[in-house]
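[job 4417] fold queue: 2 targets
>>> target A
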Amino acid sequence: LKATTPFEVSLGQQRLTARSIGADGFTADLVLNGDEAPLPLTISLKTQPPSATLPAAVLTATYSTKSDPTVRPVPLGALLLPWAAPHQTPPLLENEKTDLAGGDFERGRALFLGKQIMCATCHRIREEGGTIGPDLTNLAYRDAASVLRDINEPSATINPDYVASSVALRDGSSLAGYVRTQDDDKLRIVGPDGQEQTVARADVVDLRPSPVSLMPPGLIAGLKEAQVRDLLTFLVSAPPRRTSAEIAAVRKVGAPTTAAAPAPRPLNLVLVASKQDHGAGQHDYPAWQKTWSALLGRVQGITVTEAWEWPTPEQWRTADVLLLNFRNRDWSAGRLAQLDAFQARGGGIVAFHAATIIDKEPEQLAERLGLSAQPGPTKYRHMPVTLKFSADGEPTIIRGFKSLPLLDEPYWPMFGDPKRVGVLATAEVDGQPRPLVWTFQKGPGRVFGSIPGHYNWTLEDPLYRLLVLRGIAWVCGEPASRFESVE
């Protein structure tokens, strides 16, 4: 619960006074185990009429669950007014049918766009799919239970902008679909299969709104439970959108003074990429290389060069930091020796996502990067995750960060000893906190590692980029402000 004025709240035996969060108002967090009967909820806050100097009091209620860390508005269906019939039970926010644990965003995308249930024939979501039916992009603000109910009972609530029509013709046949245009002579009707038919107005004997949705019931009856979770994960998940206030709040916490600083020392950064090896917007290493070369090139005193698949001998000799965002399938003894020599002279490494993968003997790469992944033993899933930052993490990097929701692809378990690295952030996956962002030091060489970075939208996220820019500064031994000023 969050409000612009002080408030108190009780839920069952829990009684809380909201804590101040500065200019953002007041907040209180309530915890439910998910197995209680309906609990009495009371919220007491001081209201005020809006004026030129004081806005009206505003209260918002949001929730998240263990299997779905995305913060969502509390659905009205989860609340009962005090005078409701006592036998009524509101729908659960999460139950065995809408628990998203184990759901994979990309597998859900494949179902949505595929031929098995053909959702994309009619519906569009985040710029993918058809435009016959309602756009589903706003489902990211809905709860999984209500979305599942809409799928199973499509006629229960019909979007008023997409009410189908029943058309009876003179020859005794009939059509059902959306009437897109009609004039004195013709009707244009789009059916549930996306096909368009034109009929003469003179052939129509009856035209009326249909009480039944064009979407057939039982659409997902043939799916396995795991597939339903995948589909729901795709439908109700979306890349987070950051507000300017959120970004400013992280930047201003403990921000260093603007006292005069010595001229920045020149640094050479090498961005190493390889061929894109996933679908659109995923593992797009060339796009990252182009975007981040321009971004880092704006930092005073920085020289940026690019490498394809592996640094050149000259780059090994002159680089201060290597930024690795690639899938390297040749972690040979010779290449590992080059890493060793680079770190021994104080070279820094920033490793994104797939750069931590090695096909065999993962302990060798973990010795250089702190943690590493190996296909097979290391699992992965495309899913919403919330980074929880460690109070023991390097303060110059995580300053102002408490949590950071992302839609990305965590790897777990990682190889290497977490006790040897400085864990900056973890995310709960399969019931355990998994290290996803860390620092490491091998001799004088520093490493910043980030498992998030699967999607372009993560690499373009202003808060994630702020985190990485600070990580680059730490690897260089430079003040964070030198790099974060470009974001």
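>>> target B
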Amino acid sequence: VISSEDEVVVEKSQTDSTATGLSYEDVTTPLTASQVADLVGADRRLISMVYRMAGKKGKEATMAPYLLVRFVRDEVLTDKRFSRMVAKADADRIHETGRQMDSVYAAGPVVAITDPAGLIAKADSAGAVHPPLQDTSALVAVVPPAPVAEPEPEPEYVPTPLEVLAEMAFTDARYPSKAVYEALKGAGMDITQEEMDILYLYTASRLYPEKDYKMSVGELLAFVGDDLLTDPSFTGLVPEEASAEIAEAREMLSSGTDILRGEECSLALTLTSYPGESAQTHEFVGRVQDLVDESLTGEHYLIGESVMYKELKDGFPAELLLLTILTVVAIFIIVALTFKSLLIPMILILTVMSGVYVNVYACGAGGKTMLYLSYLIIQGLLMGATIDYSILFTGYYRNCRKIMGVRKSLAVTYYRTVNSILTSGLIITIVPFVMSHVVKDQLTASIMHSLSMGALAVILLILFVMPGVLAALDPLVVPKKQRYHCE
């Protein structure tokens, strides 16, 4: 029973707020850190640190108790960095308080109403109670006017070093190396500014790596020697042996660079795993030549074994044609003057040249290769070294045809020349063959092997092919007036 002049408040629903002693206004009214600390009887510095961790900075920063408890329960106690600092009993009380506040917050605020319809029982001046016009199950309470209290002045609060560290660790703000060093040093950690700078550099290299950044060995050694080793932050971290090795490497690099750099010209050295002469080597030299032509504007040259081989290869067709013409013409003139015939030089030259072609074909058919330089040398050597075998055989045959027939002339020619041809031919075949397996130089071994195989091919052609050619062309090889006509 209340006076008709008093204001009445009816709760929306029955809750356990009476059991907890909390109301919706209690858990949702924004309070400062000092007010919360006075309300719960906690240390103001501890509550202020929680406010700062939640992003509420400054003396006038406010936060509802319900949101504060939720933040502590859901953010602080779930973080291993801070949950270890809270005793289990305190954590249990925080969770219980959070459940109570959740219940009160879920019930919602109380509703202030008037009674225009006369639904609430009232008392008259005589003390008689008049029932309401209709039944109600609402709980009626008198709300007295709340006294207005003067706010207490907030004391100036200085956060502790641990509070500063907690704020740095919990927030997403970034701090320079010096600020972190001062915070750690104030918390009692044994660390130096140089160590913190190194840690920042290492972290930056891991978080922001420059994958495309390049530097030469000389630039790297110069940076280590002139910048790192002279910085007190790094001097104590590098052993003396490592510093001496770095200085020695710089001196060695400097002396080597002086050899490559001159007053009038400079030299760039390139080492590869390619063989001295191969298709891959020639392609590589061509790429280097194109790169040098694009990069250098002054006068420049490529020198070296592989470069020489490529230059020879590029001029091979013209050189081969010139060598063939000179060799054939020289031998043709000499043999033509010796036998006074134009057909015999052609037969002898074709026989010897066939030996060269057989050698090249045999190398290709066997899966081997022949250096083009070897081909040029072998053609000249075989033409000069084996042409005398053909001259010897043909000369004996022409002399025998003056006194005997074709068959007997071939038999006598074989008997008189085979020893000389085989003796000289086997020497020029066996010796180069042995040298090709003994000499380690690729070019020399290739030339010796080609010479051996070519000489063997020429000998076989002279002994087994040339007799048939001479017999078939006998009327043209032996003049009619010099031939023996009785068979």
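[job 4417] complete. Note on B: The two ends are 167 Å apart (CA to CA).
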